[in-house]
Amino acid sequence: MSITTLIDFDNCILNVLRYYSVFHYPITIEEIYGNCKIPCQLEELYEIIHDLRNRGEVFEFKGFYSISKEIVKDVERRLDGNAMAIEKEKGARMCARIINFFPFVRFVGISGSLSKGYSEKESDYDFFVVTKGNRLWITRTVLHVFKKLTFIIGKQHCFCMNYFIDEMALQIDEKNIFTAVELASMIPVYGTMTYKALLKANSWVDDYFPNGFRRFSTSKSIGDSQSLIKNLFEFLLNIFSPNSVNNWLMKITDKRWRNKWEHKKYPPEDYDLAFKTTLNVSKNHPRNHQKRTLSLLNKLMHEAK
C-alpha cells in the first residue's frame, strides 16, 4: 500500500470518528468499515487503526474507537444507550403501526437517535413518513391532530413525525454525510415497495458507504398491511379533500411556522433548511440538527489541519 493510499485511509478513518465524536458516540471497527468512504477490506483497517492508536490519534476501549480522550465515559454512555434502544425499539414499532393506519401513509421508518442504536429514558420516538402523492399535507394534518390528542395521556413523545415526503419526491435534496447516515440507518417498519423506491431514488447514499453501512437494527421485518377502514377513509378524503385542500393546508402551516421562527428571532436564512415546506416535503427540525452537526464536523476537520 502506497504512502498516499495510507494517508487517504488515515484521513477517511479519522473523518468517520470525527463525525461520530460530534455525538460522543465511539464506534466499533466494523462500524468504521461500514462508514468508510474508501472501498476496502475489513482486514486492512485493523492495521491502520492500530497504527493510529499507537500514534495517539485514536483511542480504544472495549473494542470501541474514538478521537476523544473521554472514551471510557463515552463507551459506558453508549452501552447504556444501546441497551435502552433495544428496549425501546419494540415500543417505537408499535407506534409506527398506529401511524401506518392513517390515510395515505405509504411508508413509516424509525429515525433519529433510536435508529442509530442509542436512546435515553426520556428520548422521543422519531419517524420518517412517506405519503401518497399530493396528499402529504392532508396526511400530516390528520396525524398531528392525533398527536395533539396524545398529550392527554402523556404519549406525545411517542409520535414525533418530523419529516414527511410524498411518493413524487423520494429523492432527498440535501446530499451530505448527515442525510446519508440518516437514510442508511433508518429502520423501515411499514411499506416494503415504497422503501425500495426510496432507496433507489437515493442511490447516491451508496457513494458514502461503499463497504455497506453497518446498521444497528438488523430486523428484516417490514409490514405491508392496508386495512379496509384505511382504504375507506382514503376514498372519502379523495372526494372531500381535493388537491386544493392539500395546498391550502401547506400554506397555512408554513405561515404559522414562519411566524414562530421570526418570533424566536432565529436566522431567517436557516428557515428553509430547518422547516422545509413544499407540496411534496415537510421537514420540522426546530433545532436544525443537520446544520449543527455539519458545522461541528467542519470545525473538527479544520482544527486537524
Q: Roughly what is the average pLDDT, rounded to an integer? A: 91
Number of strands: 7
Q: Domain count, please report it.
A: 2
Give the CA-CA distance, first to last residue: 23 Å
**Order of strands side by side in the largest beta sheet?**
6-3-4-5-7
What percentage of residues falls in helices of 4 or more residues? 40-55%
Spans of at least 5 consecutive residues whose pLDDT stays below 50 are none
Overview of this protein structure:
- With about 300 residues, this protein is of the alpha+beta class.
- The chain has helices at about 5-20, 30-35, 40-55, 70-100, 110-115, 135-150, 175-185, 190-200, 205-210, 230-240, 245-265, 270-275, 290-305; strands at about 60, 65, 105-110, 125-130, 160-165, 185-190, 280-285.
- It has two domains: about 5-70, Arc Repressor Mutant, subunit A, CATH 1.10.10; about 85-295, no CATH class.
- The protein has 13 helices and seven strands.
- Helix 6 links the parallel strand 4 (about 125-130) and strand 5 (about 160-165).
- Helix 1 (about 5-20) crosses helix 3 (about 40-55) and helix 2 (about 30-35) packs across helix 3.
- The radius of gyration is 21 Å and the shape is elongated.
- It starts with a helix and ends with a helix.
